[in-house]
Write a structure and sequence with these properties.
Layout (H helix, E strand, L loop, with lengths): L1 E2 L13 E5 L4 E9 L24 H4 L19 H4 L1 H8 L2 H24 L6 H16 L8 H4 E11 L2 E3 L16 E10 L2 E10 L5 H17 L6 H12 L3 E4 L2 E4 L1 E2 L5 E4 L9 E2 L15 E9 L6 E8 L14 H13 L7 H6 L6 H4 L1
Antiparallel strand pairs: 1-14, 2-5, 2-14, 3-13, 4-6, 6-7, 8-9, 10-13, 11-12, 11-13
Amino acid sequence: MAAQATEKLQDLSLNGQNGAKADAPAAGQATPGEAEDDSDDDQEEGEGAPEAGAAGVPVSNLFPNNQYPEGEICEYLNDNAYRTTNEEKRYLDRMNQDFLTEYRQGAEIHRQVRQYAQKNIKPGQTLTEIAEGIEDSVRALTGHQGLEEGDNLKGGMGFPCGLSINHCAAHYTPNAGNKMVLNQGDVMKVDFGAQLNGRIVDSAFTMTFDPVYDPLLEAVKDATNTGIREAGIDVRMSDIGAAIQEAMESYEVELNGQMHPVKCIRNLNGHNIDQHIIHGGKSVPIVKSTDQTKMEEGEVFAIETFGSTGKGYVREEMETSHYALTPNAPNVPLRLSSAKNLLNVINKNFGTLPWCRRYLDRLGQEKYLLGVC
């Protein structure tokens, strides 16, 4: 099912993820950042490189020395300023260079595909056409098509391309046979991830074709930038959420002659990201809360903001479209050989990375619906 009201991949489990639905059109934006020394915002520009989807040249061929654009680096402030002046700390940071290189490569891939999508998505296209175009571009630029056993674990899609329209806030990707078409008056949240060696770059943006929704897009963009600015080592999640809410809810949208305040979707959150695991266990709220959890050094976070002209709450609805194995789940004996074979395919091709039914179709799997229910 899908989440109706904004956007973002949320709480994946073995039996799948529904979409979230709200009572009014919603917009969402998500941007990955590091609590250590690097953050990547959805509007960043990288250097060099042709359009994704056009040539399909793997990004590693365009940057043979592995020197990828660094993005926007936020300097440490106040009591944490010693982290950039202390020689020992700088040395330890350099030890993490491979970790950062994989993220920067993924960020450059995401940037190119994002630009390609924003230029080429038009009303009249089917959701399946849009999703497969984005996913094929990511695979081409990572150099991993994911058709050979284990190839997708090395690089490719970080999770299925989410395309959530209007009241569907998040967590929906078209399943096989989907006939939905993007219309001129729609608000569509585009959410996709690129990964190298399990380092997932999770970023999203919203597309509209009617300027009446521009204030809604401005609200979520301002809220996202606010969240990035507030993030850092030892920062409490509650403080980030309060700042995001203050920025988001300072906007309003005029629809049909009536002014509607923009509200944060209070039950959708950002999250930290672990290797091969899209939701690492920590949540970043987008409203004021009492959460005293802190960001820690070396963690990677997706700052996600969801704005709605409705009540600011989503409920599960629609069909299940996202799936993922639960990390460290207890072993459950499977009686059917077909179920055992399906689990084996999932383990070898996705591990704990999220996937969707279309991905099983690409691998030639058939009659698997009972096994994923």
